[in-house]
TrEMBL record:
Protein's organism: Alkalibacillus salilacus
Pfam families: HNH_4
SMART domains xrefs: HNHc (SM00507)
Domain of life: Bacteria
Name used for this protein in its record: HNH nuclease domain-containing protein
UniProt xrefs under InterPro entries: HNH_nuc
Domain HNH nuclease per the UniProt entry, residue ranges: 213-268
Amino acid sequence: MYHKLKVAELSESYLTDEDIWHVLTVVLSNKSAKSATYKYALIKAMIENLYQVNNQYELTYDQLAYSFAKIYWNLIIHHGLVKQNSSHKQARIVTELLAFQEKHGVPQDFSFDKLKSTLQLKLVSKVKSVMKINVFGALYGDTQEVFYEFNHQTEYFRFQSQVHEFMMKYQRLIVNLTNYHMAKMIEDLNEYPSTSYLLGKVESIAKRSSLKPYEQVLLNYFEATCFYCGKSLSKGKRESHVDHFIPWSFVQSDQIWNLVMACGRCNAQKNDKLPERDYLDAIISRNDQLQEMIADQDYDPSLRNYHDQKIIMLYDYSIKNGFDDIWVPK
């Protein structure tokens, strides 16, 4: 059985978009067995880390497990949606998270990002064990052995290159499809009356509730000025904000190389829009400085695999995904 696999290799060297759509459609349809929500969560974790791969399209298990842990902590603990599979037994991810919450005395109203970093790391380690047993092999089988390969011993995960490009190209659509089907399954399992309510929960579980830690880092290394209009953020009562340069609704994660300081006016006006392309050169220059300033990249792991081409690709793919309402400060 696929879920018992400890090592798996890609069985195809080239795929067209049509090939990939066919496989993904089957995964999301009733033709694919769905005994748990794990497959949806792994797809969401893969998308959240699309721009964290190295030059060989590889991710670490820890990167995926961090996203996976965040998804399930916020669903199970924070929102109380404890039924995540269709069997009479409690899903292992639920058992692990509830035991972890009780052991460490974490209040239910604590979202994942409110946990201390030491607790997050411990939780990620436990979640990674669950993924090795129940998750990596299952989705590998459902995607017909052509989406990725993995090795539990080396904790190595690698996208098929065309699949990685496909996911970037159709990211917004894949996210929306995955969120809907995951919300629908959670609704059925928990006998909840509103798919739209649950869809809101599923859509928001990846987002941090606070970007304050990033604000402190950015202010430590750069002047307190708005990235967009250049006005000072320290004079008078001008409020400062941390803004996702590429909108969060597209990138679905918080990476310091995609975050800038903005004044309240620019942040409100920009909202969910893409800034004009001239600002792309500005953030590339800013990120080059940031990499030099933060020599210890373990301080912020998102900088390890960052290079200028990543944010250029992110910008271009966001336009292809419908973020074509370009914004400039007024």
